[in-house]
């Protein structure tokens, strides 16, 4: 039985390399995160809907290879699996999406397998999980309610995408969802727009005030800030030769949750996740460069 379940939208990825060709791969923030968690040894499952197409079948094969339980993945023969493109330029990576009407965007509260969520220890969702449609937003709230009613943890990554919804709606939905989150996983850029704050400690206080028991605020090259109501620590970054940051935040999420489930120490989980995220930037694409537990532990042991 999965101990960690994620809900969201998987997306087939076409990532532009330095040679200007497009490398096929896999994306979707919560799918990336659950694969990252599985590579760290967590027992994981995924909730979504995919199309009855080649991309959907490729995802089922991927999750099977990664050991992610797909018992509750739905196949919608009337809607496609979403696709996105990653372009690289002077300002970093840029995303282009073909996701309107995707199978995952049609996933609603009636599709949520409440018993599977109740049986897990933690549910992971994100702002993107809610931004893709009103039905999807309601499905996430339904899943969060089920997890909280069962006494399980809820993890929420803001993952703000203003191409999907206006900032005013994003603030309203994400802040409301964060009231039910046990673990808040915001990124600094997102949090600055959502909260109007710039100081990392004040941002951490904001999410703790909403009700989170743990805030893991990622700070990019500056590392991360891990905060609880009683304690907080800055986790410095590590030096790597980064070529592509696609999916690094998702790797942080999955690694953090897997390690926290293992050790029940948010500060140790933050140090572990920071290394995993940094290592994931050394290759192209969201999935291929995600490190295994052995790789993360070897880097940690180097000091």
Short description:
With 303 residues, the chain is of the alpha/beta class. Helix content is 40%, strand content 23%.
Explain what the structure shows.
The protein has eleven helices and 14 strands. It is an alpha/beta fold and 303 residues long. The protein has a domain of 210 residues: Ribokinase (UDP-N-acetylmuramoyl-L-alanine:D-glutamate ligase, 3-Layer(aba) Sandwich), CATH 3.40.1190. Strands 1, 4, 5, 6, 9, 10, 11, 12, 13 and 14 form a ten-stranded mixed β-sheet that branches. It has a four-stranded mixed β-sheet with strand order 3-2-7-8. β13 and β14 form a beta hairpin. The chain is globular, with a radius of gyration of 17 Å.
What order do the helices and strands come in, and which of them pair?
Elements (H helix, E strand, L loop, with lengths): L3 E4 L3 E6 L5 E6 L1 H11 L4 E8 L2 H13 L1 E2 L3 E4 L5 E8 L2 E7 L15 H6 L2 E5 H5 L2 H16 L3 E5 L9 H12 L4 E2 L3 H8 L4 H11 L3 E5 L5 E4 L4 E4 L12 H16 L2 H14 L13 H9 L2
Parallel strand pairs: 1-4, 1-9, 2-7, 4-5, 4-6, 9-10, 10-11, 11-12
Antiparallel strand pairs: 2-3, 7-8, 12-13, 13-14
Helix pairs in contact: 1-9, 9-10, 10-11
